[in-house]
Amino acid sequence: MGSLLAGIVISASKLVLGILIGSLALISDAIHSTADVVAAIITLIAVKVSDLPADATHNYGHGKIENLSAFGESLILILTAIGIGYASVVRLMEPRRLADWPAAYVAIALMVVVLFLTGYRAVRLVRSYATKRSSALRANLLHFTLDVVSAVVVLVSLILDQLTHQLWVDPVGALLIALIIFFASLRLAKQSVDVLMDRAPAGLESQLQEAIRRVPGVSEVPRVRARQSGSQRFVDATIVVPANISLEESHRIATSVELAADAVDESIDVMVHVEPGPDYDDPSLAVRALAEGLKMSVHAINVQNIYGRLYLSFHVDVPANWAVADAHAKVSELESRIKARLPTIAEIHSHIEPTGK
Fold first, then answer.
1. Residue 102, preceding bond cis, omega within 30 degrees?
2. What strand order describes the sheet that includes 345-354?
């Protein structure tokens, strides 16, 4: 609430001084700050609603109100930017002198104070966002970041105007503010729409695939789906486990998968679907099946039992035009899947052979 009151006072001060000295850049920044106050109120409401627990009509909680509010805030900023841009073009066509001392210097002093206050508020919001990872807070953080940039632009334009007395300085400063707000708001709008349309968080699915495959007992991970809702991420993961294990053991593996997903991101709520894999008595059949799953061909599979320990060796065919690093990565992935599918194997020795294709 204190931050909100500070925003109202700052906006009013900018507007009064902007009118007194006739600075379009300062008036534009005041309008922008007023839009930020409205956005802060929206954010406050959105964060409180998003914290409500899931209920009978909102089974996945209320997190998406944060993304909806962020989209609304981006629209407010876009309209603000268009209005400021239009006024800037009109002022460029009909330039006018700004007031000199003392009002102009009072405005410069105000912008210095505003710059420090806004920077302080932005730092506090960064810390809060780092804790909650809220989409609404991220949108509000954008507002404060734009406030800092706008304050710098206004401060520079006021100083240049007093030093050079060029009539174009002030409207160009306002136009620059409009452009900064417009393009930053478009980016925020796109991010909000992506979440509202259930676009998968970038890179999360591949991270989860890798983490889940490392869980002992998981033979394959056919599918991982993820979506964002506010600060929480919901994931559906399908895993394949050996067909001959008990229900209790498969449940233990599923619980381990949940812990692995939590280690990737604590905000994840994961649902694990367990499917039985082929029940191969012969380890060589399992190796061939796993290789086929990676679209690879293996031959000369040999399994030896030496003093109760199983040792596996095989040859892998890879295209001759592959880089060594790519071939090694692919075969290493196969070895990881074999270890998960055949935990009794003590050591694996693979030999890479070029196929000429």
1. yes
2. 297-306, 309-318, 345-354
